[in-house]
């Protein structure tokens, strides 16, 4: 037993009286004698109860906290996480040597006495009086189980733990009554099983199965006599007898237990003597706790799963309730992670961006039409060391990510979708000069206007000037075209389309109502952008992202399924609008800025993005069955990607198609290997007749083939063909757009 002083500095005589009082109480209870208040016995003490009969009769027995196992979509283990490293097992799965060893050293008369061992109390009383202290305790295994239950109920709350272990007469009396209850209800074998599952064996191991794995890398059912003796000896003082840190002390304690087993007749004296001569035979395994242990670089996805659990009301109405359930553990969480896709992401990331580089990369893959997150990885590993991080660069700040990164021109397809859905033809042309002022005034949502003159923007180089049609402007990522487009259709339809596609700022703030949003000035996360493009891939259906497929909760021997959040899908745009955008973006990888990202084995579509001063570069793309986003940049927004080495390759200037593009190509090639080859539902977008100076209008007027949430919104849209195709260069300050905002920003984001 732990050598703890039993009171608040009581004299040996007072201590003896307390032990005598307990023995008298125990004997009386077992004899069925009703007792008066303790005050009548002269045993009143701080923390005691007035009447034994007034104590609650039911001991709260919370489910034992256990490890939680997180699995991928194929059932392979990603990681184990736990508040307590414990695996609850039955007595049949515990070595008979282990059962005998714990009884021999902790409660040798276990099978002879009831809940209270009167002989043990008297023996301890005699020892303690002789030593003028508390040299020996008198708790039975049943009493120890009661105490451990109280500690388990206290969790990680230090105040509650102190209350559960305080040395007061009141706590001892409660312990006695609950012990009697357990003896009557459970019986000796079940009590022993519960004790071996709840007790702490040091080194983060709770319960005998975790201890067997921790010290010997084997199951509890396979423990031999000397191994069992070692573990049984640890229980009295896990820090003092820790075999990993003090082999000599642990060996002495093991041999004491072996001799005790021989004295009890559990093993022969010869067996004990031989066992004492053997080395400890440790084969320790490192504690494998937390997302840092995840395979295939899935630590950040593992952490995302945890964040989903702790924030979704489906797992509890309050934050405290969800945290308690998570810490209790015993969950088997099957996730959406596709091991093939995850391995491919990590291989591509590792190939193209080193963890020691000045910049990092993050990538996510989503399944269109389901919202399932198939992969999530980044170049800086999950951890606490140099060039490691715990910040998930793929997700929003509220889910363990950062403040996000400007997506640059990868936002332009959202503007195109809003325009086409509102009736603008895909053949629409604009003057698209090399340099121009942002348009003003422009009306925004709720009747506001954006009116800031004199803020200029340019295209990537002086050779880029129009007129351009939407198809060519998208392929070449022409900034001035898209600013003219948003000024024509208004800002409100764009922000509303973004909302329908699940596009939101990574920091949780609202998207600003300014024309510069067309060039990707609002910080987004890779997961947000991947899932938004999945809307194009699924022909206009947006599905909320999901990471969890199912959860099985184990409580004791009972298993039950927990309800998990499901993806909800809604129509963000008509099929024709989505197909038109896919046709535009297919041209980007075939003839435009994203040619280095194009897949050889199957049709693909996507868009590059590069921000001012090259703080971030992107490629976001998709096939009909997978959508993925890749971001490259400095998470602190300090290092410009000019004259920089990334993945061992020198770059004078980084472009979205140059660095993120090949990462996307390689990760998607591997993820899609063996998957069906599917094609897009393309539409015909005629090239404008530049010779005649007249564009063609094959647009539709907000045709919404879905759930009634397509078409023009906010009252500021143009109808199809209302904006004339220019036959000359329009002056920079002459625009026919109607919607804008009171926001600001100088844009200048490039493809």
Explain the layout of strands and helices.
Blueprint: H1 12-30, H2 38-41, E1 68-71, E2 77-81, H3 96-106, H4 118-131, H5 141-154, H6 158-165, H7 169-185, H8 188-198, H9 208-216, H10 225-234, H11 247-263, H12 269-277, H13 299-311, H14 319-328, E3 331-335, H15 339-352, E4 360-366, E5 373-378, H16 412-421, E6 429-430, E7 435-437, E8 442-443, E9 449-450, E10 456-458, E11 468-469, H17 470-476, H18 479-489, H19 491-500, H20 526-537, E12 541-543, E13 548-555, E14 558-562, E15 569-571, H21 575-591, E16 605-610, E17 616-623, E18 626-633, E19 642-646, E20 649-653, H22 660-672
Parallel strand pairs: 1-3
Antiparallel strand pairs: 1-2, 3-13, 4-5, 4-18, 6-11, 7-10, 8-9, 12-15, 13-14, 16-17, 17-18, 19-20
Written account of the structure:
This protein is of the alpha+beta class and 751 residues long. Helix content is 35%, strand content 12%. Strands 2-1-3-13-14 form a five-stranded mixed beta sheet, covered by helices on one side. Strands 5-4-18-17-16 form a five-stranded antiparallel beta sheet. Strands 6-11 form a two-stranded antiparallel ribbon. The N and C termini lie far apart (71 Å). Residues 1-52, 133-137 and 691-750 have low confidence and may be disordered.
